[in-house]
Design a protein that fits this description.
The protein is of the alpha+beta class. Helices cover about 20% and strands about 40% of the residues. Strand 4 and strand 5 form a beta hairpin.
Length: about 120
């Protein structure tokens, strides 16, 4: 009986999660602190860019100060910039050091044929 309950709960969770993602997917937020780090990621947490278009960094802030330590990662490797010439996925990481502790927040950038 426990397996049936677990399966049911997983199914309910998946449905609620999908409704949330689909419902929020096209919403433009001015800022988002999705992970509770205190870093405010400006713009969309998941940003879609059409192949060939220019990627514009929306930035992030911490305590009303601009976060200037930004790194880009592609398949686990750090890269100098986001290349929009080809479909790909990137992880943008924003870092600040507060009282000797490094705090991070992320954004996902998806380059694809969107149009």
């Amino acid at each position: 009986m426990a397996n049936k309950n677990n399966f049911f709960l997983r199914k309910v969770f998946l449905i609620v999660f999908c409704v949330f993602v689909i419902g929020c997917q096209n919403k433009k937020l001015d800022f988002l602190d999705i992970d509770g780090s205190g870093i405010i990621v400006h713009g969309d947490y998941v940003k879609y860019v059409n192949v060939g278009d220019v990627y514009i960094e929306d930035g992030a802030s911490y305590n009303d100060k601009v976060v200037d330590d930004i790194t880009y990662h592609n398949h686990g490797r750090q890269v100098a910039k986001i290349d929009t010439r080809f479909p790909n996925n990137y992880l943008v990481t924003y870092k600040v050091k507060v009282s000797g502790k490094v705090i991070k927040a992320n954004r996902i950038v998806i380059i694809d044929n969107i149009k």
